[in-house]
Every structure is written in structure tokens, then in C-alpha cells.
Amino acid sequence: MIYIIVLVLVGGGLFLLMNRGSTNNDSEFTQIEVAGVTYDNEDGSSRQSIINRLNEGDNISLKKEPHNEHDENAVAVLSGKKRIGYIPKSLNKQVINLINHHRIISIVISEIFELGQDYLGIEIELELKEGSLNK
Hints:
The chain is mainly beta. The chain is built from two helices and eight strands.
């Protein structure tokens, strides 16, 4: 198994992209730390409360938000219908490309971790069709 690790420095935060080649060569994996997990949603629901009820291995979905007032390329990370954060701005165009070309096989929570003293962070793993990271 081959690991390719890329660290991306964005707005004071360090994001990890990791390509873990699959043993069956049918898929690739990349991990992304979710941004915006400390904010509340527009309906007042706490993203931290939602994350606190999640487990590693839970399925997650992505939703493009072309009408987002802060970023027309925003990609929300959802648990059910509740937003738990966003794909980092530095990666959202790449993720939109994966979505548009149907390259994503599955998305799961790969890690829930302490983010500072009072918050939880979350990392998701995207399983991609083989060759998706090279396009």
C-alpha cells in the first residue's frame, strides 16, 4: 500500500490530504479536515452538538451551495440534513469537480478529535473512483 500525504496551509490552518491507495486498485481515499465546525447553523442548531452525537465510520454527505453569500463554491458537509461544517475553501473547487464528475463512491467520518479546549474537530474520508486524484 502506498501513502501520498500533502499538507495544505490555508488561512492559518493546516489541512491534510492523504491518498491511501486501495489494495484492490478500484478506489482511492483522501481525508479532509472539515472547516467551520465551531459555528452554529442558520436555524440556531449547534454544529458541535451534532458532531458530539456522531461516530467515526458514520456516513456523511456533501452539498454544493452555489448561492452561499460567502463563497459561491462552498461545499457543505452534512450529517443527515444538518450542516456540520464545510470543505475548506482551498479545496472546494476540487471537491466540486469530484462531485460533478461522479467520482465520489462514499464519504465517512474518519476521525473526531479535540479541537482546542472546548471544541471537537472532524475529519472525513472520501472514497474515490481510481484515478480521481490525478485528474
